[in-house]
């Protein structure tokens, strides 16, 4: 889609709000692709991948409830010496339906300490991985203190052992970055080298291909769902002929998002060429594939037909007095006819 309107308008924000938070929306400006650290095609592909979402649904077996007991059991150190080690942890969980006592591995006790879990907290423990998540303090302790920086949650319903569906929304670019960032060695020279050269990591096509295979496997198994979003490219005439050639290929991908171009140019020379002119600065082969939406300014007659809510009409005199504004006509009746003039204070 090509929208022929002036750049810098609020229509991109309006599109993002209409789509909502569940649909990925990635705005960019045509001049963003020019960088000394990273290739132009890499910037375009990164924004393409940011506009493609993946909704992962996973059913996990968890133990959830309020902590009623947390007792680490110690034993003699098998390596000898006077110290003792933790052999296991006894934890009691309570829900509205019942209670359950669990015997946990010592490694889970370290996770409990990191989350700062104590009696009265509501937690859940994943049965497969042993991951611990503290959800907050049980609301039965809400009146314990007058002031406390604590989040209170209700007592969980149902059984302690339950199946919970967890939905997580990520983008393909998030998966790329998570798998492409090199960790380096643990020696001091590697750490100093990473500090001295904070260069942006470029993601290879081979890595993206491997991630696409894993994503397609999850989609076939029903674990994940692809959510194609919207890529908004403002001032598209700033792209050069190399970027348009790359866009032409990227748009043919099976997981390509919806791409919206915005430009306010007429016939102009395509950037990167010497004498090739085209409408909106876009090559004709790409221009034939897009649908052009032209926007026009409101005429005075159309501006008169814009209806204002009654709440605004009632509060307008107060707004004028606070902002040092005045209406030309007397009263609110002149709002549909007269402009509002700014007065210098």
TrEMBL record:
Organism: Saimiri boliviensis boliviensis (Bolivian squirrel monkey)
Role description: Proposed core component of the chromatin remodeling Ino80 complex which exhibits DNA- and nucleosome-activated ATPase activity and catalyzes ATP-dependent nucleosome sliding.
Major subcellular location class: nucleus
The TIP49 P-loop domain, residue ranges: 9-300
Keyword hit for Transmembrane: no
Family of the protein in this entry: Belongs to the RuvB family.
Coiled coil: none
Lineage: Eukaryota, Metazoa, Chordata, Craniata, Vertebrata
Molecular functions per Gene Ontology: ATP binding; ATP hydrolysis activity; DNA helicase activity
InterPro entries: NA-bd_OB-fold (IPR012340), P-loop_NTPase (IPR027417), RuvB-like (IPR027238), RuvBL1/2_DNA/RNA_bd_dom (IPR042487), TIP49_P-loop (IPR010339)
Protein name: RuvB-like helicase
Catalytically driven reaction(s): ATP + H2O = ADP + phosphate + H(+)
Subcellular location: Nucleus
GO terms classed as biological process: DNA recombination; DNA repair
EC number: 3.6.4.12
């Amino acid at each position: 889609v090509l929208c022929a309107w002036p750049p810098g308008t609020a229509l991109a924000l309006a599109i993002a709000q209409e789509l909502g938070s569940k649909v990925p929306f990635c705005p960019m400006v045509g001049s963003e692709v020019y960088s000394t650290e990273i290739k132009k095609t890499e910037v375009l592909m990164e924004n393409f991948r940011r506009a493609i979402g993946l909704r992962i649904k996973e059913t996990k077996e968890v133990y959830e409830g309020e902590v009623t007991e947390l007792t680490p059991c110690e034993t003699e150190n098998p390596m000898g010496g006077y110290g003792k080690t933790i052999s296991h942890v006894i934890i009691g969980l309570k829900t509205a339906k019942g209670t359950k006592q669990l015997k946990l591995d010592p490694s889970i006790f370290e996770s409990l300490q990191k989350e700062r879990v104590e009696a009265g907290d509501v937690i859940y423990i994943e049965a497969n991985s042993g991951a611990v998540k503290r959800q907050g303090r049980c609301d039965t302790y809400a009146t314990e203190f007058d002031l406390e920086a604590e989040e209170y949650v209700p007592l969980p319903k149902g059984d302690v052992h339950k199946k919970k569906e967890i939905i997580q929304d990520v983008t393909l670019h998030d998966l790329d970055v998570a798998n492409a960032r090199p960790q380096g060695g643990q020696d001091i020279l590697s750490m100093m080298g990473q500090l001295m050269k904070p260069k942006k990591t470029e993601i290879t096509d081979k890595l993206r291909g491997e991630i696409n295979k894993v994503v397609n496997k999850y989609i076939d198994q029903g674990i994940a769902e692809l959510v194609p979003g919207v890529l908004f490219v403002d001032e598209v005439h700033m792209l050069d002929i190399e970027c348009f050639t790359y866009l032409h290929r990227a748009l043919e991908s099976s997981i390509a998002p919806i791409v919206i171009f915005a430009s306010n140019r007429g016939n102009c020379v395509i950037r990167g060429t010497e004498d090739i002119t085209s409408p909106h600065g876009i090559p004709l082969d790409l221009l034939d594939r897009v649908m052009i939406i032209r926007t026009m300014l409101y005429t005075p007659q159309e501006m008169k037909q814009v209806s204002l809510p009654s709440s605004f009409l009632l509060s307008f005199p107060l707004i004028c007095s606070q902002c040092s504004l005045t209406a030309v006509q007397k009263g609110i009746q002149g709002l549909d006819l007269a402009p509002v003039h700014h007065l210098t204070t």
